[in-house]
Amino acid sequence: MNLEVRQTKDGSTTLFVPELNEHYHSVHGALQESLHVFIKMGLEATLERQTTVRLLEIGFGTGLNALLTLQHTLVSGATVVYDTLEKYPLSPEVVAQLQFDKFILNPELLDYVGPLHAAAWEQPTTITPRFTLRKLETDLEAFAPAPDSYDLIYFDAFAPEKQPHLWTDAIFQKMYDCLAPGGTLVTYCAKGSFKRSLKAAGFTVEALPGPPGKREMTRGVKPH
């Protein structure tokens, strides 16, 4: 897959995929999008009711969501067990071009960029005492999680119009089934067809204010 490094409006970097005509993150701000959609509306909301979170990310990508989640554990004292799917892992050369040091201002956090990307695939790696990472080199359709095995899902796949096979009723039924009661799915997407799929699976659907450049995002909650 051909990739081009692009700078977004908040100074953070993302990747552009010419074959899909799609960016990995919002061009209005990759960092702001991740902090708003996944950390604030997902992780922080989950930590209001528990201090240990079993987390599933759909799309490891540049590792930005994982890095920001790890950062939150450093300051909050929370513990996160972080599983992430990625069918197309980035090469070390591409990771270097992302220049995290230009927009991640915490020097301590920068020390974890290398370990996150260098962590072995298919097995848990202890990155810190409060953050364990397991990277799975697979696609979502082949992934078969156990029921009730996660508390939070970061659904960060490419947009529905780019990869419609990842936004089907069957996929969101799988996501619903692998969440524990009270578990949450968060995503940048706010399309009506997607929200109907969430509702069909059993989720309670919330339309929330979106990150910069986007009016809405979506959170789905599995009822207790």
TrEMBL record:
Enumerate the Pfam families for this protein: Methyltransf_30
Q: Where is the MnmC-like methyltransferase domain?
A: 145-223
**CDD domains (alphabetical):** AdoMet_MTases
The superkingdom listed in its UniProt entry is Bacteria
Which NCBIfam families does this one have?
A: tRNA_MNMC2
Q: Can you name this protein?
A: tRNA (5-methylaminomethyl-2-thiouridine)(34)-methyltransferase MnmD
Q: Which gene encodes it?
A: mnmD
